[in-house]
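Homework help board

Subject: predicted structure for assignment chain

Our instructor gave us this sequence and asked us to write out the predicted structure in C-alpha cell form, then describe one feature. I got the C-alpha cells but I'm not sure how to describe them. Can anyone check?
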Amino acid sequence: MVNAFTFSIEHYNYWASILLLASGLYIVLSRGNLIKKIVGLNLFQVSVFMLFISMGKVSGGTAPILTDGRQIFSNPLPHVLILTAIVVGVATTAIGLALVVRIKYAYGTIEEDEILAMDRAQEQLDVRPQ
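My C-alpha cell output:
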C-alpha cells in the first residue's frame, strides 16, 4: 500500500501544474492591469501544457520505433499537440499585447476599471437628451 506522502512526492509534476493553474486563474480574476491578465493567462496555459506532457510520458518508455522484441512505448501525440498549442499560444499572446498597445493609445491607460469608467461616462454623454 502506498502512503499519501509518497504518492504526493512521486506526482510532483501534477502538483506544480495545479499550483500554476491556480496562480494563473487568481491573477486573471484579481488584477485590473491588462498586461498582468495576459501574464496570468500564459501561466494558466503553461500549467495545461505541463499536465498534458506529464500524462503523455510513460516511465521506462521509449520512442515508438518498431524493433525486434517487445518494449514499452511513450505516446508522442500529447507532445505533438502541445507543440502546436505553444505556437498558437505565442500568436494569441502577441495579438493580446498588440491590443493592449492599441487600448493604451486610445484610452491612455491599461487599467480595466479606468477604461470601463471612461466608457460609462461616454455612454452617459451620448444618451443625454438635447
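Reply (TA_rk): Your C-alpha cells look well-formed. For the description, you could write something like this. The radius of gyration is 23 Å. That's the kind of observation they're looking for.
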